[in-house]
Amino acid sequence: MKLIPHSPTSGIYPATQDYVHAMEVQAPQRLLFVSGTMGLDQNGVAGATLEVQLGLIWSNLGAILGSAGMSVDNIVRLTSYLRDPSYADANAAARVRALGGRLIPTTAIVAATLASDWLVEIEVIAAA
């Protein structure tokens, strides 16, 4: 599989330093579509703070990806659902840390979650 990032510099607004506009995935053998993942512990209890929930989300994503023989290195697209726009910077920083600085297409949406103590929900697409 080959990944080719695309962020044109003319005819469109520039991508910021924490994402790319598009990711071309050539010759993947497998695709994994991961449902929205929350910052819940193994008992289904939400973390007490935004930072704790972001840590749990990335740990949970690692477990889900690992069950398919993948890791965060296989993520090619990510969507974050934030309960509040003020969570955007912390969410972006957690994503950049979790991906080791690797840039992927990403979208953040402000939306109500099904439970009021779920502060962030993240869904990903992974390829191998």
Please tag this protein with its features.
128 residues; alpha+beta; 60s Ribosomal Protein L30, Chain: A; four-stranded mixed β-sheet; two-stranded antiparallel sheet; 2 helices; globular
Overview of this protein structure:
The protein has about 130 residues and is of the alpha+beta class. The protein has a single domain, classed as 2-Layer Sandwich (60s Ribosomal Protein L30, Chain: A), CATH 3.30.1330. Helices cover about 25% and strands about 30% of the residues. It contains 2 helices and 6 strands. The chain has helices spanning about 50-65, 90-100, and strands at about 1-5, 20-25, 30-40, 75-80, 105-110, 120-125. The strands form 2 sheets. The chain has a 4-stranded mixed beta sheet, covered by helices on one side. A two-stranded antiparallel sheet has the order 1-2. Helix 2 links the parallel strand 4 and strand 5. The chain is globular, with a radius of gyration of 15 Å. The protein starts with a strand and ends with a strand. The mean pLDDT is about 95.
- Text of the CATH class: Alpha Beta
Average pLDDT across residues? 97
CATH topology call = 60s Ribosomal Protein L30, Chain: A
| Beta-strand content estimate | 25-35%
Q: Could you estimate the helical fraction of the residues in percent?
A: 10-25%
Question: Strand-and-helix sequence, N→C?
Answer: EEEHEHEE
Taking pLDDT < 50 over at least 5 consecutive residues as the criterion, the unreliable ranges are none
* Alpha-beta content class: alpha+beta
Lateral strand order in the biggest sheet: 3-6-4-5
CATH homology superfamily? RutC-like
Main beta sheet: 4 strands, mixed
